[in-house]
Amino acid sequence: MCVSRLLTSALVGLAGLLLWGCSTGPTYTAQPEPWRAQEERTCLVSGHVREQPWLHTRSTLGGNSSYCGAMQPFEMAGAADGRVHMRPAALLRCNMIPSVERWIRQYVEPEARRHYGVPLAELKVAASYACRPRNNQWGGKLSEHGHANALDISAFILADGRTITVKQGWWGEPRDRSFLRAVHAGACREFTTILGPLADAFHRDHFHLDLARHGRSGREVVCW
Ligand SMILES: [Zn+2]
């Protein structure tokens, strides 16, 4: 059985708690962040996120501590009125859904048509919810993925079957480079953290998109 434990602050200072769960999982630091629940509640009561054939609520996400997960998580298997599939389905908190929707509708779909002349069919989801430290680095801060507040996309699949991967396309042929840079730039208008191949080696094969709070306003954007 997977049981959370705490190392006392004597080991890690007053800034946070070092947690570990299953013997196989890496540890992470975390601390209470009341804004997360407030933000999620506001999203849930707004009525902007409703069940659709491609968007379902989930009762739980699992995880090895109360820091992980969301009050009312969603399983997102598609977007843009179901035109675009997301595979495998992403497990996300309420706040992420409208941002993912807008990014796909306003940037990914139009850029796919502009660059390739065919509709976008699918986004390949490399990761969504996972109760783990950032970049899986032992002892690191709990990842936004642990809050179901992050989405990793590794490839874009068009209606004609063509697949543009971040790994090969980012430094690949000019059209793929241009398409990927355009959707990356669009993501920087919808999310607060956007990490791609220019960020570091961890992100050479996917775009990491999340809604973490940065800076005093909480809305500063980290776009790499
Ligand atoms: Zn990520």
Largest sheet: 9 strands, mixed
CATH topology name: Muramoyl-pentapeptide Carboxypeptidase, domain 2
H-E order: EHEEHEEEHEEEEHHEEE
The beta-strand count equals 13
- How does the overall form come out from the CA principal axes? globular
How big is the Rg? 18 Å
Plain-language structure description:
With 224 residues, the protein is of the alpha+beta class. The protein has one domain: 2-Layer Sandwich (Muramoyl-pentapeptide Carboxypeptidase, domain 2), CATH 3.30.1380. The chain has helices at 9-12, 34-46, 96-116, 166-169, 174-190; strands spanning 5-7, 17-20, 28-30, 55-57, 74-79, 84-92, 120-127, 140-141, 150-158, 163-165, 193-195, 207-210, 222-223. Strands 4, 5, 6, 7, 9, 10, 11, 12 and 13 form a nine-stranded mixed sheet that branches. The protein has a four-stranded mixed sheet with strand order 1-2-3-8. β2 (17-20) and β3 (28-30) form a beta hairpin. α3 (96-116) runs antiparallel to α5 (174-190). The protein is globular and about 45 Å long. Mean pLDDT is 90; it is low at 1-15. The structure holds zinc ion. The site of zinc ion has 5 residues, from β9.
SSE inventory with pairings:
Blueprint lengths: L4 E3 L1 H4 L4 E4 L7 E3 L3 H13 L8 E3 L16 E6 L4 E9 L3 H21 L3 E8 L12 E2 L8 E9 L4 E3 H4 L4 H17 L2 E3 L11 E4 L11 E2 L1
Parallel strand pairs: 3-8, 6-7, 11-13
Antiparallel strand pairs: 1-2, 2-3, 4-5, 5-6, 7-9, 9-10, 9-12, 11-12
Helix pairs in contact: 3-5
